[in-house]
Amino acid sequence: MAHETFTKESRTAPEGYFEVEAAGLRWLAAAGAGAAQVVRVRSVEEGRIILDNVVNARPSLAAAEAFGHALARTHAAGAAAFGQGPDGWEGDGYIGAQEMSLVPEESWGVFYAEQRLLPYAQAAHSVGNLDTSGLRTIERIASRIADGVFDDGRPPARIHGDLWAGNILWSPKGVVMIDPSAHGGHGLTDLAMLSLFGAPHIEAILDAYAESARLEPGWRGLVPLHQLYPLLVHSVTHSAAYGTQAVRAAERYL
C-alpha cells in the first residue's frame, strides 16, 4: 500500500527554504480550472515540508499533451509583476540551494538581466566556472536584454521557475509539478529549462503549450536566450562546462 504523504526535511536548510516552496506550490495550485496539477501541501514548518505522495505511472503522449495545455493555463493566471514572489510570501526565494532574488519589476528585460543573469554569472566567475571573457559576454547580452530588445509585451506569467524533468511527476491522473521556484516571469523560461534537460514526450508538451499560449512563430529561436538562466545557475554549483554553454548561447544574440 502506498504511503499517503511524502516528507522532505533538512536540519541545514536556510531560513524560509521550505516555507517559500509551500507558498509557491499553493500559488501555482491556485491558477484555476484546467491549470497544471501541483502536489498538495499538507503542512510546513522550519526545516520540513509534508506533501501528498504522488503515485508513479508510465509517461504517455496523452498526458504530455494535456500537461502542455495545462501549463499554458497556469502561466496565463499571471503574476503582479516580473520577479514577484508567490502570494503569501515576502522576501527572496531559492533556485535549488542558491538564493534567488524576488523583487517586482515592470520590465521583463530588466528583471531577467539584473535578477536572473548577472548575479549567477558573477557568482560563477568568482568560483572559476566562468572566465573573464565569458563574464563580459554575459554582461553584453544582459545589457541588450535590459534595454528591452527581447521584450514582447506579454504580461508576467505564473511560472514554476525550476521546471526540469525531475520536477514533473507522471501519475495515473497526469503530470504533477513539484519543487518550484515560483515567481512572475516569462513562460518561455519554463519551456527552456524543460528543453535543456529533456523530458519524456518533450515535443508533445511544447507543441501543446505553443497552441494554447498562442506563441508567435519563431518562438523556438528564443529558447536558448531563456536557457541562459539555468545554465548560469548550474555553472555556479556544477562545472565550467555550463559556463561555456551559457556563453555560446549568449553569443547567438549579440
UniProtKB/TrEMBL annotation:
One Gene Ontology term of the molecular function aspect: kinase activity
Entry annotated with the keyword Kinase: yes
Organism domain of life: Bacteria
InterPro entries named in the record: Fructo-/Ketosamine-3-kinase, Kinase-like_dom_sf
Keyword Ligase attached: no
Signal peptide per UniProt: none
Alphabetic keyword roster: Kinase, Transferase
Family note: Belongs to the fructosamine kinase family.
Name of the protein described by the UniProt record: Fructosamine-3-kinase
Upper classification of the organism: Bacteria, Bacillati, Actinomycetota, Actinomycetes, Propionibacteriales
